[in-house]
Amino acid sequence: MNVRPARPDDARRIAEIHVRTWQAAYPGIVPAEYLASLSIDRHEAMWSQSIAEGRPELLVAHEGDSILGWVAFGESRDNDAGPDTAEIWAVYVDSSQWSAGIGRALWARTLVRLQERGFASVGLWAFPANERAGRFYRALGFEVDADSAKQFVLGGASLDEVRHVRRIETPPRVTPSSN
User: Fold this and answer.
1) Ramachandran class of 40: left when φ > 0, alpha when ψ lies in -120 to 50, beta otherwise
2) Which candidate, 84, 86, 61, places its Cα nearest to that of 71?
3) pTM of this prediction?
4) Nearest to 142 by CA among 105, 116, 111
5) In this structure, is the dihedral angle defined by the CA atoms of residues 103, 105, 106 and 107, taken in order, positive or negative?
6) Is the separation of the CB atoms in 168 and 86 below 8 Å?
7) Closest by CA position to 90, among listed 63, 108, 69, 116
8) Phi/psi of residue 26, each to 5°?
9) Which residue in 71, 132, 172, 176 has a CA-CA distance of 20 to 30 Å to 102?
């Protein structure tokens, strides 16, 4: 498996994973009617535009020609975030590939990119009811920001969301040896 930047021809598969993962991960969290209404075509158009604009940055995990998962990240969109705060906008792995190390591989490459871009911390928003995702984020060193809990309406239901945060360690600088 390899991780690379998303290309325009990846938008359809990114959209498929996005929609199908929501439908696999969020029953009982997000209203069933909303999950059933998700459109791969609409998501493809959205991700095509994002890839073309380069915002957010998108990486895909692939094996040969098959995309297995993806991550979108960039500057934090939170009003209270400083300029050195990044955000994982979304990370999704095909549900048939869960627990196969794909999410960790995407995170490893994302962390390098965030370090290269000079970010000091990173956050992401998640449903607290999504325990699987919560365990994954904790394993990557994220902690729940206890003061961040918020509610929003989606598909006619009020949903809870919390921010997970972690510091980004700067890799040590390698200085040329004088030998």
Assistant:
1) alpha
2) 61
3) 0.90
4) 111
5) positive
6) yes
7) 69
8) -110, 10
9) 172
